[in-house]
Amino acid sequence: MAARPKAAVKGEIPKDPEKVDRILTSALHEFAQAGFRNAKTDVIASEAQVSKGLLFHYFGNKANLYYEVSKWSLARMNRAADFNVWQSAPNLKVMIERAMRYKIKMQLDYQDDFAFSLALYGGTNKFPEALAAKLQGLLDGEMKMATTDLAGPVLDRMTLREGVSLETVRGLFLMMANLISDKAQAYMTDHPDVKVDDLEWLVQESLGYIDVLEHGFLAE
């Protein structure tokens, strides 16, 4: 016997997709400009042309709104990005250089998203504990995706020397990616107004790591 559809909760207001999109867009801009603690929900509601009551009905509280904006912004950036820029690179060094140049170009079209993500990657210690844990899980997922979906095809094409497994190389690459991410977070915490092109020094440092990863550090 087929199960009966669940009855709507009395008093529940269905979410209007257009209003949700306006709230997320407005919140992204406000969080990108003011940061989590200084962002005003009054401003977000006003810019989204909704009542503050509706905003909280849809998202519960400011922390949950920030988390939903984080998921929404990262997802739309992933949809907009041309993964072929990473995946078609002949080696890891070219991939890193291409990715950095491409991100600088994307920054012009997604200014709020980049400002928001720079603050997000700048460290979760400035958020309430419960929110910080959820955001860290989100960032860990993005890092895993970058290692498997973006760098994975490049690693798969590389010819490894005898005795070296692909799993070992993937593990080393992930550790290197985590190190680079930690350095970026530390720098962005100390420089809140950083732009993507301000991280050129980190690109060059990353290329040095890649060179050692590919060729070792002992003289031949």
Automatic annotation (TrEMBL):
Transmembrane segments: none annotated. It comes from the Bacteria. Gene3D superfamilies: Homeodomain-like, Tetracycline Repressor, domain 2. One of its GO terms (molecular function) is DNA binding. Residues 17-77 form the HTH tetR-type domain. InterPro entries: Homeodomain-like_sf, HTH-type_TetR-like_transc_reg, HTH_TetR, Tet_transcr_reg_TetR-rel_C_sf. This is HTH tetR-type domain-containing protein. It comes from Secundilactobacillus paracollinoides.
